[in-house]
Amino acid sequence: MTFNMLLFIAATIVLVVVSVLLAYSLVHAYWNLARRQENSDRPRPGLILETIWTIMPLGLLAVLLILTFQAI
């Protein structure tokens, strides 16, 4: 197994771990938001912006994974 293939496998593992952690944090945040909004009449501002800001690292990791695969 070459070094490039090991690097690709490591990048894939990092992408999967980060994706799972991001998904968990998003779901957890939305559950907490739903509980808080039951007691409040005000909507949370910037929810879409916060979601995009959270998903951006996932997109960056996906691009790096593709570039790593192309380098092999």
Write the topology of this structure.
Layout: H1 3-39, H2 47-71
Helix pairs in contact: 1-2
Provide an overview of this structure.
This protein is mainly alpha-helical. It has one domain (3-71). The protein is built from 2 helices and no strands. Helix 1 packs antiparallel against helix 2 (47-71). The chain is elongated, with a radius of gyration of 17 Å. It starts with a helix and ends with a helix. The mean pLDDT is 80.
Summarize the structure.
The chain is mainly α and 72 residues long.
Instruction: Report the count of strand segments.
Output: 0
Round the mean pLDDT to the nearest integer and report it: 80
Instruction: Give the topology string: H per helix, E per strand.
Output: HH
Helix count equals 2
As a percent range, the share of strand residues is under 5%
Largest sheet: none
Helix content: over 70%
Distance between the termini: 12 Å
Shape: elongated
Our Rg estimate from Cα atoms comes to 17 Å
Structural class: mainly alpha
* Poorly predicted regions: none
Number of domains: 1
What keywords describe this structure?
86% helix; 0% strand; mainly alpha; elongated; 72 residues
